[in-house]
Amino acid sequence: MKIYTLEFEKPITELEQTLEALRGQAAEQKIDLSAQIHAIEEKLEATKKEIFTNLTPWQRVQLARHPKRPYMLDYLQRIATNFIELHGDRRFADDHAIVGGLTEIDDRRVMVIGQQKGRDTKENLMRNFGSPHPEGYRKALRLMQLAEKFDVPVICFIDTPGAYPGVGAEERHIAEAIAVNLREMMTLKTPLLAVVIGEGGSGGALGIGVCDRVLILENAYYSVISPEGCAAILWKDRANAAQAAAALKLTAKDLLELDVVDEVIPEPLGGAHKDYDETAASLKKAILKNLDKLWEMKTSDLLEARYKKYRRMGVFTRVEPKKRGRAKKDAAVVTPAPSTA
Amino acid sequence: MAVFEEKPKISETKTKKHEIPSGLWVKCKQCGEIIYTKELRANAKVCAKCDYHFTMTAAERVAMLADEGTFREVDADLASVDVLKFTGVAAYSERLRTYHRQTGMNDAVMIGLAKLDGHDVSLAVMDFSFLGASMGSVVGEKITRAIEKATELKIPVIIVSASGGARMYEGILSLMQLAKTSGALALHAKAGLPYISVLTHPTTAGVMASYGSLGDVIIAEPKALIGFAGPRVIKETTQQELPEGFQTSEFLRERGLVDLIVHRKQLKQTLAQLLKYFSGRSGRKFKAAD
Ligand SMILES: [Zn+2]
């Protein structure tokens, strides 16, 4: 695979290449270059730290879209065994942009469902770049209902630029497919866990994302609209994507502060693509910890907590009746009373 | 998800705020007929010559659907907060003030209890003239409250939608309103109570990917634009010509999403007839539980 380097990764890649050359030279010519090698290693670490502790939201979006970033199947290979993929929505087609099936993580039997991107052009054509059609969401719901029937918890891996905007998708009602999932997931009688592993592209992500716990990898993002789309509408120019990315508050840290995600899973320095095994290990640890907690809950408590989790999302205020439209400067944010449901 | 939040042609001046200028005459967008505004209002804002359905405000729609004097609005004072401190070409807080001045509303939906042909119903009506009726926290919250109230009182909920999608200025919190509203509808459905979704021009993106698509019956006004992605985005992504009539009410009825297309002047009687069919063996009118 050809080397792919993001603009801000370049200083790191250059040092890595220097390091490799030195090591090669040392081995080939049987000379001791350990002092030089050590110096470059230290410089590499320092450079990595400097770049990756100060990432802008836009840089994180680019990492989330990195062509070498691990995808759902890369993680399953590392954390799960005996995967049996189940295909199709029993209505129209099998959407390869969403993969689903039964698997084991340690001794837990789980249903896994998630968007899958392709690694090369051919694979991407098959996977539609991880942009599902309605059939993907309908397959996902079918598998979730199957999981519910046999008392199997569900883990959803979210990684999509968004649901596919195409003629066929509209003709077969992609909005309805997503809406039905949102409604049905709310009352599904089995634990639901979601992990945003790359791109959380709007309704296309949420369509498998209404879960009891929502985790996110450190450099993944989750947003109501792509930064480019937002820039095109609000700035009238897609080139303003970096500003839009900052304004949308779409990073893992922002989402945690907004209470939209429950936990941020750390990535190796340099991003998940720098070490698949290490990222997979962290992911597995977080998944099992959360899954075991959910598994202990009574179903009725689980459903009540799930409803309340989404019920309290949103921030608003009340305006004074006589001066409608003008919010009180110090008005407390109104938190709705917990629902009786 | 927001398809054309900024697109709705709402001029900054007061005169054009509800599509029909406050002048005496208006030109029909479809057939070009010059119509006396008083006549247009008397005709439910439908062109008498070509049946073009002009946009209605929430207040006009409520007046048309609710039995006279029965609508009790609630939560009109809920207002949006610039929670992300959205910094862009235009400040969110500034936009909110502008639209409040133009419409007199605090956000893009009106909710309350009403009677419809004697049935107690919970009614929510979106108003496209407020920021393209995009869905942020306030819209999501009020829609959810309207649904929950209906569930609590064991009465039907009717939502008249129009929306450009989720409200970008509230970022991910807007997206979460899809889950919140759909979740409330799950409980309403489990309680065996009716929900009728009425789609008006235009209803797209986030609202279609949630409550817009979830009605026991989905009614559309004629020739409304209804869909998930905007036509321009689809064209750009697929480099494909769009089929004739793509994403219209008529197209979606043929493709199996919309149950029926109802002329605005028949909307109330159609809703009343449906409620009668949904009222169970007794056939009694829906009455709010105490
Ligand atoms: Zn006309």
Describe it:
Chain A contains 14 helices and nine strands. Chain A is α/β, with parallel strands linked by helices and 341 residues long. In chain A, strand 2 and strand 3 form a beta hairpin. Chain A is globular. Chain B is an alpha/beta fold. Chain B has two domains: 29 residues, no CATH class; 199 residues, 2-enoyl-CoA Hydratase, Chain A, domain 1, CATH 3.90.226. In chain B, helix 4 packs parallel to helix 5. Chains A and B meet through helix 7, helix 8, helix 9, helix 10 and helix 11 of A and strand 4, helix 3, helix 4, helix 5 and helix 6 of B. The site of zinc ion has 8 residues of chain B, from loops.
In short:
The complex is a heterodimer of chains A (341) and B (290). Chain A has 341 residues and is α/β, with parallel strands linked by helices.
Key features of this structure:
heterodimer; A: alpha/beta; 8-stranded mixed β-sheet; 9 strands; globular; disordered C terminus; B: alpha/beta; 2-enoyl-CoA Hydratase, Chain A, domain 1; two-stranded antiparallel sheet; 9 helices; 11 strands; 32% helix; 18% strand; disordered N terminus; binds zinc ion
